[in-house]
Amino acid sequence: MSRLPSALGSVSTAAEPSADHAWTLHVGLGQLRAPNGLTRKLSNNERTLLYCLAQQQGEVISAEVLSAQLQIPQEEYDKHRIEVIISRLRRNIEQTVGLSLPLFAKRGTGYCVKDMVLVD
Predict the structure, then answer these.
(1) What gap in Å lies between CA 44 and CA 3, rounded to an integer?
(2) Could you say which of 6, 48, 53, 93 would form a disulfide bridge with 113 (CB–CB 3.0 to 4.6 Å)?
(3) What distance in Å separates the CA atoms of residue 13 and residue 55, rounded to the nearest whole number?
(4) pLDDT in the model for residue 43
(5) Alpha-carbon Rg of the chain, whole angstroms?
(6) How far apart are CA 98 and CA 102, in angstroms?
(7) 36-65 residue pLDDT tens
(8) In the chain, what is the greatest distance between 2 CA atoms, to the nearest angstrom?
């Protein structure tokens, strides 16, 4: 948890999607709430990854940047490692809450999320 707010800045509330149709990342609780009201507890890596992506709402962030936010040493960087975390996260969220996480891959570029609200 120590790497979230200090490493990425404070939680922003500007230009947030409508709370009724948005996913809500409760940073302090490490919990993700789906638009249907169901929640799932996140691992530290999942929380850090979603926090980083939600801070840049809709903008593509490279796997290398995400790896750095997860504090993976540069000499151990492997794009596949991020792909595995994201794949498992998507699958587990869909199984838990019954909805697809709005986390998108831009081939050869990186990842982005849409419709996600951050809460301390």
Answers:
(1) 10
(2) 53
(3) 10
(4) 95
(5) 13
(6) 13
(7) 999 999 999 999 999 999 999 999 999 999
(8) 42
Q: Which residues pair with 111 in a beta bridge?
A: 61, 105
Strand partners, 39: 33
pLDDT digits (tens, 9 = 90+) for 1-37: 444 444 444 444 434 545 567 999 999 999 999 999 9
Instruction: Report how far apart, in Å, the C-alpha atoms of 5 and of each of 28, 53, 71 are.
Output: 10, 13, 14
Quick check: 35 and 21 in contact, CB under 8 A? yes
Nearest CA to 23 out of 110, 100, 106, 95 is that of: 100
What does the DSSP 8-state code read for residue 61?
A: B
Cα gap 68→70, rounded to integer Å: 5
**Residue 100 burial (C-beta neighbours within 10 Å; 0-12, 13-18, 19+):** exposed
